[in-house]
Amino acid sequence: MSVNPRNILLFGLMGMALLLVAVLQSPTLALTILNMSLISAIMALGVNMQWGYAGLFNVGIMGFTAVGGLAVVLVAQPPVPEAWRAGGFGTLFGLLIGVGTVMAAVALWRRMAPGRGRALALVAVLVAGFALNRYFFVPAVDAIEAVDPATTGYLGGLGLPVVLAWPVGAVFAAAAAWLVGKVSLGLRSDYLAIATLGISEIIIAVMKNESWLARGVKNVSGLPRPVPQPVDMQAAPWVQSLADGLGWSLAQTASIVVMLGYAGLFTLVLGGLIWLAEKALNSPWGRMMRAIRDNETAARAMGKDVTRRHLTIFVLGSAVCGLGGAMMVTLDGQLNPGTYEPLRFTFLVWVMVIVGGSGNNWGAVLGGFVVWFLWVQVEPAGRFVMELVTAGMAEGDLKTHLLNSAAHMRLLTMGVAMLLVLRFSPRGLIPER
Amino acid sequence: MDILNALITLANFVLFPAITYGSQLALGALGVTLIYGILRFSNFAHGDTMAFGTMVTILITWALQGAGVSFGVLPTALLALPVGIAATVVYLLVTDRVVYRFYRRQKVKPVVLVMVSLGVMFITNGVVRLIIGPGDQRFDDGARFIFSVSQFRAYTGMEEGLALRTTQGLTVITALIVMAALFWFLNRTRTGKSMRAYSDNEDLALLSGINPDRVVQVTWILAATLAAVAGVLYGLDKGFRPFTYFQLLLPIFAAAIVGGLGSPMGAIAGGYVIAFAEMGITYAWKRVLTHLLPDSLAPEGLVQLMSVDYKFAVSFALLVVVLIFRPTGLFRGRSV
């Protein structure tokens, strides 16, 4: 692997920009941007696998990151024994019946000969399964949600270390992706886009409404952290001496140390992923994927099972998105399903991949950094521009309207940036080799 | 056992709303299916195009209301609708000229066009939010009901009530007129025939001297008209909010695919199928069943199959079923 000096320059410039923010604005802000950039880079890597390696168009990134976030609650939160006693069995049994019904229906469909008998049997199984599911599920869920609704009202998690939730989040996202891919891959290319759009809306709807699972819109906050709290850090002698040495306040030093801890963890994960992705891309498997992307018909003629390969890469890429989602919820320390919106979670990641350079892992990573940096910094800039524009205007409705609309400018700028890059520089900042 | 009361309840809470919603979805799906048939990509910007047309209509409506103009019992928005349509037509034609034409000439893969339409969708969304804001807007005026529950009760003396809102009646009538006009255009006029020819076989159409640029232009004009009408009808019925229009994308696509992408008849059928499924599955059937069943069998719960929050799941489930068993849709749209 040869290293292109231009790429090093680009990453260097990005680092300089972050340093400038640290010096001119505040080190805390620079680290906040850095941590989210690392996570964004991971999500962009996942999408790049799907789009860049295989040409699959996923518009459901939001859903995959959200199930990743859900995994954090289910793995790391302490269990709520009272809720389990109240309705744990009924809920699980109801879910099992649901899964069993679907599996029975599939088996029936495969085994029986086509005809009216099969259709009738299928409907009977589905109706019976649904009724049984409701019978066990609904009272159990009501019982769980009645358990101390102000603080719990859900089953809680397994109480395991939070870092374990990251791979679990990846597995959750992979499962959702498998479901979608199994149905829509192998059909027209845009069916996948529509199906992913649908599944992401449904995942968010489930997370908002099934309070027994993760409290829904009541949010779960105070999630366990992989690094100590800033408050605990302040007590550590080495932090105190560091604060003295640097001449910073103790609280600021402690929070910076904690953020550096997160940055270290995230960098480890990102580094591992890049290493794996680069290995995969430059292996026979990676060459096969690109061959399929560039000419499906030829690849099929060479005996490649295009649909299966697409399914693999789609599941892998979504798993990486789920991993990123789990890491993001860990960083925030809370799961807040109401904040998941497609503009932020689906579209922004797409802009990262396109701007960075689709088909190139380093490009996706750089795109994650650059676009997140702009996303954070464009808002104050937009407000500044709006204030300049409206400076000469008299106070009035129009002026307040324009000032308030600065927030939507961000969306517009990103959209324009994406179209401009697609049109004039479709290969992105770091083009595919 | 009271079949008549059961029927009235059903009509009030399921049939009327579903027919209305179905008409709105059908108009939206017609636009998607036309663009798919001629330009050969799934246009993700369609929901936001609807929002754009509705926004212009709302602004004009406010201006008219401010000037003291009204349309009697009908909503003032109907007077503003032509301006909304015109603005949407201009917007789509400009978008095509600035964005899509480049890719069409390059003959890129359809999925690239889908992606470009995603970019257009976000820009449109941004423009709409920038101009009118992300909040709820209500702009219906005029009479609220064609007949209200109390009028119906007084007239028939039935126990259950039935109301027909103006917006519901208006939606169905407008949708029927627009659909009839569209089919007349596609089947009877020269331009419509050339559009169908282009959709069936592009190369053959080009050979027979059809001007592709004109066909594309007319398609955008039709799509813009359909989108603006669908958006305004939906907004009159349920209120306007940019994000809701984005979310309409899923049921609209589901309708177009269930019917068969590229088939106008299919889009209409798909719209009603999705609407009825959604209403039927998220409606609490308790009242209807209480009337139908003997007292001893009266249901205790709400008999609601799924909560209303899962209406997306209904569209999605239908979409999946169609993709698995009949990927070309009910009306045999374009092949896979």
TrEMBL record, chain A:
It is found in: Cell membrane. It is a multi-pass membrane protein. The chain crosses the membrane at residues 7-24, 30-49, 56-76, 88-108, 120-138, 158-179, 191-207, 256-277, 310-329, 349-376. Keywords: Cell membrane, Membrane, Transmembrane, Transmembrane helix. GO terms for molecular function: branched-chain amino acid transmembrane transporter activity. The keyword Phosphoprotein does not apply. Pfam families: BPD_transp_2. It comes from the Bacteria. One of its GO terms (cellular component) is plasma membrane. The keyword Amino-acid biosynthesis does not apply. This is Amino acid/amide ABC transporter membrane protein 2, HAAT family (TC 3.A.1.4.-). The lineage of its organism: Bacteria, Pseudomonadati, Pseudomonadota, Alphaproteobacteria, Rhodobacterales.
TrEMBL record, chain B:
It is found in: Cell membrane. GO terms for biological process: D-alanine transmembrane transport; L-alanine transport; L-isoleucine import across plasma membrane. Its main location: membrane. The chain crosses the membrane at residues 6-39, 51-73, 79-99, 111-132, 168-186, 215-236, 305-325. Keywords: Amino-acid transport, Cell inner membrane, Cell membrane, Membrane, Transmembrane, Transmembrane helix, Transport. GO terms for cellular component: plasma membrane. PANTHER family: BRANCHED-CHAIN AMINO ACID TRANSPORT SYSTEM PERMEASE PROTEIN LIVH, HIGH-AFFINITY BRANCHED-CHAIN AMINO ACID TRANSPORT SYSTEM PERMEASE PROTEIN LIVH. Belongs to the binding-protein-dependent transport system permease family. LivHM subfamily. This is Amino acid/amide ABC transporter membrane protein 1, HAAT family.
